[in-house]
Amino acid sequence: MASQSEGGGKDDIKTHFVTREGTYKLMPLSEYSKPTRVPYNGQTNTPSRVSFINVNDGSPSPDRICFNVGRELYFYVYKGVKKAADLTKPIDKRLYKGTFPTCHDFNRMIISSESVRLLVGFTAGQLQLIDPIKKELGKLYNEERLIDKTKVTCIKWIPGSTNQFIVSHSSGQMYIYNEELPCGPTPPHYQPFKQGDSFSVFTCKTKSTRNPLYRWMVGHGPINEFAFSPCSQYLAVVGQDGYLRVFNYNSMELVGSMKSYFGGLLCVCWSPDSKYIVVGGEDDLVTVWSFVEKRVVCRGQGHRSWIGVVAFDPYTSVFSEEESDSSDKKTGSSNHENVVNGSLQSNRNSLECQSTSSSSNITTYRFGSVGQDTMLCLWDITEDIIKQPYGRSRTSILVTPNASHTLPRCNSLPQSQKSNSVASDLTLDGNAHPVANHTSSLSTKFATLTLADRKESQERKEHKRNFSLASRSVDKNSILRSNHVKPVDDSIKLLGTLACPRLEEAPILEPLVCKRIASERLTELIFREECIVTACQEGLVYTWARPGWTCPQGYPNTMQHTVVSPQVGEVYQMQF
């Protein structure tokens, strides 16, 4: 990686950066990539994603890393900042023909040193369950593309489940699978199960249980990503229609939503205590949304292009003095599991969130973002920003405490732990929280008319890109037509409300750090205890050591990367 020091030009690729806790340094010997380097030709659009799993085998390096590059999938021992990566010894390597891996996720309920379960989604819509250690397990779902023909955009094991997982497609649909059940030999026929504002849930019309267990139709346009809350009760979904929608997963109820300022939302992440959600997308902004208060807290401005990944850093979040310095601070992971969880309470609503630990009191939240501009940005959300009232127009990007408007009272949820239902007036009609109009007609036109233009363009692109969107038109009934959002109308209504404030109506944050760290667009960001892990479209996975971890024992500067010839290692070929 061609790079320059921190003191170079603004657009030089950096090898270190400084924050309030110290200096983060790139560890060049801890770089993971394809064993044989070939020049990046930009032919594939599929992002390189990274998944981690700890096998608890008692070794000095119990972590395993999985990442995809083009048509290939790699599985290595991850040695972190302690030792140099050995690219000659992949535990597993697979090459796929006819399709590209797009995303993957480990089952964290069934783990051993001899076996792990990995789900993989593909561009043609198929799903695969593999064991990269045993290499015996190999199940295919949607193999004939009878369930959905479009690209898999996100795949996750359902928290707490050993056999159920959820997958989203660019068709705008999500499916719930049981890995033990088969997929039928014919296209499934669905019947309505539940409906709500902007979403519908269906089940299969069959005498015997089969996959998919449920089919969710959410919003209008592709679903780009979803994420479960750390307390496992809520599911946040972002899509190309620009909406964040939050569901109570068990009751299948919509409990909150927000709208991007412009364009689609591409990524989503929960805070460690389940109180806040950060999203990023095509408006080049990161937006912080309060799950408790159902309002946009602030927006972050620092990227120059679309934002592809957002992630919270539980290891540098600041806790109140009464919070202990115990292992609670060191239990985070890239998927936000086993981090400090808390009950979501305020003077306005009470959201009961079952937690495996005592409630937390985080006073400063750290999160990061990466995007197509090759920039890494780090952000801090402090108490003064969180408590900033929804107020009048601002002309400065600095957060000021003098806004005179008070926050309108939000709709509250039932406080009983026994009830998962939501208030009937939680809708997307945009009329719940009217506010004064502070925006000129020019900015209003920019935020609304451009949305319509982009939506039409996106529909044309999706029609050309995908083999078929027939799965969206299977059920041509009034339920589907009546429950899909009309993005243009709702965008006009929501602009200037708590769900989509105008630019001057919400605080604008500046990043603590905003550095160019790669030559290709960034596609992954994971916070670990000892380091930050990033990946780029070229398939390079970088390790950035946190302050105090930069000179580990057994990491001599004279060591060099070793590479493997194409004949070394097993290659799994699969024709889809």
Automatic annotation (TrEMBL):
<dbReference type="InterPro" id="IPR015943">
    <property type="entry name" value="WD40/YVTN_repeat-like_dom_sf"/>
</dbReference>
<protein>
    <submittedName>
        <fullName>Dystrophia myotonica WD repeat-containing protein,WD repeat-containing protein 20</fullName>
    </submittedName>
</protein>
<feature type="repeat" description="WD">
    <location>
        <begin position="258"/>
        <end position="290"/>
    </location>
</feature>
<keyword id="KW-0853">WD repeat</keyword>
<feature type="region of interest" description="Disordered">
    <location>
        <begin position="323"/>
        <end position="342"/>
    </location>
</feature>
<dbReference type="InterPro" id="IPR036322">
    <property type="entry name" value="WD40_repeat_dom_sf"/>
</dbReference>
<dbReference type="Pfam" id="PF00400">
    <property type="entry name" value="WD40"/>
</dbReference>
<keyword id="KW-0677">Repeat</keyword>
<dbReference type="InterPro" id="IPR001680">
    <property type="entry name" value="WD40_rpt"/>
</dbReference>
<dbReference type="InterPro" id="IPR051362">
    <property type="entry name" value="WD_repeat_creC_regulators"/>
</dbReference>
